[in-house]
Amino acid sequence: MTLQFAQQSPDALPLHVVGSDDLDSFIETLTPAHAAWVRASVFSGAIGQSLVLPGEDGAPAAALIGYGTETARARARFVLAAAVPSLPALTFALAGGVPADKLEQECLGWLLTAYRFDRYKSQAPDGAALVAPEGVDETRVEILANAEALTRTLINTPAADMGPAELEASARGLADAHGASIDVTVGDALLEQNFPMIHAVGRAAEQEPRLIEMRWGDEGPTLTLVGKGVCFDTGGLNLKPGGSMGLMKKDMGGSATVLGLAQIIMASGWKVRLRVLIPAVENNVSGNSFRPGDILTARNGLTVEINNTDAEGRLVLADALAYGAEENPDLMLTMATLTGAARVAVGPDIAPFYTDDAALAQALISAGPQMADPVWQMPFHAPYEAMIEPGIADLDNAPSGGFAGSITAALFLRRFAGDGRYAHFDIYGWTPVPQPARPKGGVQQGARALSMALPQVLGL
């Protein structure tokens, strides 16, 4: 699926964006017939409303779309997208009404309304199309929309069709499309090449665990993206209850997000040396599953006591992080659907991130609202370090007590990230209730904010 603007056309219908507070003054600009039509309708300019204005021949001549009140807009994201499904499947050209600083964001939301996960059912009919307004970077918005579509589709695909091998195939497809190189270490070769924790977590599954490594670019600063690729998480021997297992196809949302971000970077032609690392596993149950009480030795030599096999994401990320740190990149990022504690803290819409880098944090805080991609900084709270030190090993993968679960997971990962600039995102990767431009299902979080913040931080 390709999300794109419509071609410029003289047949595109004018689309007027009208706020509730501006409706009366807008009606005064209309012809008497159209003014009477609007007054006779239920159109109030509320968010989600649309109204087609007929021409003299009865065919659509223009349309209105509600922009709500300032208070309502402050509580919404992708305001125009709320009404797009109610428009007829015609081509429209914006005729004003959207503030310049919101125009690109609203156009992105419009394109995202066209996303469909249709692998297992017939495709829905095409919806309303939009001509790129003047002043909007058409290419950039399309790049962002299609990166989001990639991430959503990877997350939405069930684990039977998106295991470690299929995730590898998707990464290879992305690499081929952009001229990147790719190397994959599979199965027992993980032990031979010193990725013991990736192997331990994934060895019980039918599909062998693997580390996917993609490289692109030969100039500029070095950027390493590490994405959690747990394609399904049963919890291992600490088996999840059925209600908690139902969404575990999304446990590779971190890898899906870094692949989406990589697509943005490569399609935009950034002058960076990009490296993507994805430990792809399925945390399953069999006679050779790793066990509670086991002590594993990570790639960097730290030992980890396993107190819960359902805290497996940080284990596979640890080996990948240690591997990434060996090249001392200018910046390294992790993306992971890591903890339920993060969801309790900020809910499903906000992507919490951790970093000690003040410049990166400020750039992300600024970029989030501009990119309709809310993020929130959380602390690497040093006094909690003792909570991840069990006594008989260097680290504990699942501290007891239940407090600060997202923070302790982030502190755990930081032990493997080396001494360079580092940030960690603890994302949800899922929209539980349909929202404008965000249907229920997989969703990308943090990538758009990063796409705006990283050029500033890396000096591109």
Overview of the molecule:
Keywords: Aminopeptidase, Hydrolase, Manganese, Protease. It comes from Donghicola eburneus. Pfam families: Peptidase_M17, Peptidase_M17_N_1. The protein has helices spanning 23-27, 32-40, 70-74, 100-112, 138-156, 164-178, 189-192, 196-202, 242-245, 253-268, 313-325, 340-346, 358-370, 405-414, 447-458, and strands spanning 13-19, 50-54, 60-68, 91-94, 129-130, 181-186, 210-216, 222-227, 229-233, 273-283, 295-297, 303-305, 331-336, 351-355, 375-378, 395-396, 422-426, 430-431, 441-442. It has 460 residues and is of the alpha/beta class. It has two domains: 13-136, Leucine Aminopeptidase, subunit E, domain 1 (3-Layer(aba) Sandwich), CATH 3.40.220.10; 141-458, Aminopeptidase (3-Layer(aba) Sandwich). The strands form four sheets. Strands 6, 7, 8, 9, 10, 13, 14, 15 and 17 form a nine-stranded mixed beta sheet that branches. α13 links the parallel β14 (351-355) and β15. The radius of gyration is 24 Å and the shape is elongated.
Task: Offer a few descriptive terms.
Leucine Aminopeptidase, subunit E, domain 1; five-stranded mixed β-sheet; Aminopeptidase; 460 residues; 33% helix; nine-stranded mixed β-sheet
Summarize the topology.
Elements: E1 13-19, H1 23-27, H2 32-40, E2 50-54, E3 60-68, H3 70-74, E4 91-94, H4 100-112, E5 129-130, H5 138-156, H6 164-178, E6 181-186, H7 189-192, H8 196-202, E7 210-216, E8 222-227, E9 229-233, H9 242-245, H10 253-268, E10 273-283, E11 295-297, E12 303-305, H11 313-325, E13 331-336, H12 340-346, E14 351-355, H13 358-370, E15 375-378, E16 395-396, H14 405-414, E17 422-426, E18 430-431, E19 441-442, H15 447-458
Parallel strand pairs: 1-3, 1-4, 4-5, 8-10, 8-13, 9-10, 12-16, 13-17, 14-15
Antiparallel strand pairs: 2-3, 6-7, 7-10, 11-12, 14-17, 18-19
Helix pairs in contact: 4-5, 5-10, 8-11, 10-15, 13-15
